[in-house]
Amino acid sequence: MKKATMYNEPLLRSMMVLRGKTTSALAKTIDVSKSTMAKRMRSGNYSRDEIERIITDLNLTSDEAFAIFFPHKVPKKKQNDS
Question: Is there a contact between 59 and 67 (Cβ–Cβ < 8 Å)?
């Protein structure tokens, strides 16, 4: 059984293609080996600093970054009518 991740790997890979970035290039961006990058891409286990570097390197908008790294929306709280 595949572990559910809290990030959108296919969208990250799509953005990499659109920006002309390889897995090796992104690994250099976050200062890890290619094999570590492959593990991170499968697990979605990135540090905050790594996420910030990826966002900068891929020139992601806020919406794109949230769609990749935080794809599950948090339900809005209902307001009481009091």
Answer: no
